[in-house]
Each structure stands twice: as structure tokens, then as C-alpha cells.
Write a structure and sequence with these properties.
Length: about 325
């Protein structure tokens, strides 16, 4: 993978390239930022670069097995469902693998794609490895923010913060993929700097439809009495508790976008909106509530997201948010 194929994050790539060339690599990096912003893409480039520098040939894709690259993520049970944590046994097995000699004589790399799913036991086991890392071993941890991990682990990592990618870069990339200018502009505006979402709209035709459904479901929430909102939530969250956390976090990302645009509309800067409320029937009603009401709802959402990231009950968190939203009467 060429670094030129990565959208945005130029300073992070420059920093990592410099560390590679000068031999000043940290033993552990923590990539933090919104989902779909490019953390995994940069991690894959970083891993390929490290391996290629050592052995002089191409790295197999991370979806296949490479003898010196270890991907740590949640296991799947016999029913095909992801487990809710990364277990201490997984971390202990990782420690054993890293204690062995490098197959190709270079770096051994551990990529924790879902570091937020470490529990207390597995976190403690990982901490022991980070405190005394094997020689020529590099850890890459991926998370939404540092609060998802114990402070002891964060303190032993070089934290790299991923910002949102600019709309113009995403729009240009979409046009290069053959997307018409008007559609590229709309998608780049909607994806809010999360490039992965932009390309998911292209690769998955249902993704755009799902997004539109989420938007109108949010409008329905605003129009509904509080007691009706609970039933709407139950329809939206999966019954499987193990997948509720991921689904709830995805919902919160969408709701944050909608609330942000409502606030922009309310303060008279609708040109910065990413979502179009025209035709929904709530444009006038939005203005009947002071900005502080919408801001309180947004603050509540961000607090709940933090709590859910720390394994609070997703349904209870979402219920708290919908109760904070004003009721729009049409």
C-alpha cells in the first residue's frame, strides 16, 4: 500500500516515516479517532512499511496470515457471533507468540484492532507485556479515544490522534472513482470527514439507504411522545446484547451529526449543515426551542457515548438521550 493512496493524516504518516528512518520507533502506538476516519488504513500501511523495510518484499494482506504479524480482536462463538471481550487467554497466547524469534528476522507486530474490548484481566496481561516488551516488537492499538482504555496502558503508548479528513479531499477521491460531481459533493458532505463511510456508500448500495432510514427515524423520534420513543429504540437495537454496544455507538455517531446540524440551523449557519431538513416538516419547529435545549441534548449524547464505551448498558443510555430531546409538534 502506498502512502499516497491514504486520504489525509499526512502529519501522522510523516511522523511514522521519520521514526522508521531515524530508528526512533516506539514499542507501542495508540491510534485514536472516530470510526472510519482511517486508523486501520494507516495501521496497515505502517505494518507493510515495517515489514517491507526488513525483508524487502511485499506483505500479505492483513486478512491473511503473516508469520510476524498478529491481529488481536474478539473471537467468534459457535453461532457466528462476536464475543463481548478480548480474553486474557488471547493476550497470553499473543505474549507467547511474541516471545518467539521473528520468522523473517525483523519486527514482530501486534495489531489490537479492538483495544476497547479488553477487560480487566486481559488489560492487566497486556500491561505486563508493554512494561517489558520483547525485543523488536511493536504494538499498534486502535480505539475511538483514550478513555476507552486504562490510563496505565495509555501511558505506555505513543498516542496518535486522527482528525477528520477534509471534505474537499474526499470529494476529489470520489470523483477519481468515477462518481458524478454532484453525488460526490453530497456524499463527502454527509460522511463528516469519515472517509470509510464515504466509500461504503459506493461499495454497498444499501449503505446509503440505511443512512437515509436512520435520518428519518431520528425525525420520527423528535415527533414522538417520550413513551413512544422507547418502542422505537427497541426496534432499532439488536436483541443480541453482545452486538448492542457497537450498534449503539453507530447510532450515536449519526444522532450527533443530526443534532449538530439542528444547532447550526438554529444559529443561522445552515450552509455548514451536512443533512437536509427541508421537506421533513420540522424546520420551523426547530426554531421554537432555544439553542441551549439542543446543546444540552448533544452534551447528554456525548456523555452517554463515553459511558457506553466503558460498558454501560446501551439501551439505558439511549433512553436517557431520547428523554433529553424536545418533542417537536407539527
Amino acid at each position: 500500500m502506498s502512502e499516497k493512496s491514504i486520504l489525509g493524516h499526512g502529519k501522522i504518516i510523516e511522523f511514522l516515516n521519520k521514526a522508521i528512518k531515524q530508528g526512533t520507533l516506539s514499542h507501542a502506538y495508540l491510534f485514536v479517532g472516530m470510526d472510519s476516519v482511517g486508523k486501520t488504513t494507516v495501521a496497515e500501511w505502517f505494518i507493510e512499511t515495517l515489514i517491507n523495510n526488513n525483508v524487502g518484499n511485499g506483505l500479505k494482506p492483513l486478512s491473511t496470515t503473516h508469520p510476524d504479524v498478529f491481529i488481536l480482536e474478539r473471537l467468534v462463538d459457535e453461532k457466528g457471533k462476536e464475543k463481548n471481550v478480548i480474553t486474557v487467554e488471547q493476550v497470553r497466547e499473543l505474549r507467547h507468540q511474541l516471545s518467539l524469534s521473528s520468522f523473517l528476522g525483523g519486527y514482530k507486530i501486534a495489531f489490537l484492532k479492538e483495544a476497547a474490548y479488553l477487560n480487566t484481566q486481559s488489560s492487566n496481561a497486556l500491561l505486563k507485556i508493554l512494561e517489558e516488551p520483547p525485543e523488536k516488537t511493536i504494538f499498534i492499538l486502535r480505539a475511538r479515544n483514550t478513555k476507552e482504555l486504562p490510563a496505565t496502558i495509555v501511558s505506555r503508548c505513543q498516542v496518535l490522534r486522527f482528525s477528520l479528513v477534509s471534505q474537499s479531499l474526499i470529494e476529489q477521491a470520489l470523483e477519481k472513482e468515477g462518481i458524478e460531481s454532484k453525488e460526490a459533493h453530497l456524499i463527502s458532505r454527509l460522511c463528516q470527514g469519515m472517509v470509510g463511510i464515504a466509500f461504503s456508500f459506493i461499495e454497498n448500495k444499501n449503505a446509503w439507504q440505511d443512512y437515509q432510514e436512520s435520518f428519518f427515524q431520528f425525525i420520527d423520534l423528535l415527533k414522538s411522545a417520550p413513551y413512544k420513543r422507547f418502542s422505537l429504540l427497541l426496534q432499532k437495537l439488536p436483541k443480541d446484547e453482545l452486538n448492542q454496544k457497537a450498534q449503539a455507538l453507530e447510532i450515536l455517531d449519526q444522532w450527533e451529526s443530526f443534532l449538530r446540524d439542528i444547532i447550526l440551523t438554529r444559529v443561522g449557519v445552515s450552509e455548514l449543515q451536512r443533512n437536509d431538513f427541508s421537506g421533513t416538516g420540522i424546520e420551523t419547529s426547530i426554531s421554537s426551542f432555544p439553542v441551549v435545549i439542543w446543546k444540552q441534548a448533544l452534551d447528554c449524547l456525548r456523555y452517554v457515548r463515553q459511558m457506553i464505551s466503558q460498558n454501560a448498558n446501551p439501551l439505558l443510555g439511549l433512553e436517557r438521550i431520547v428523554l433529553s430531546l424536545p418533542v417537536i409538534k407539527i
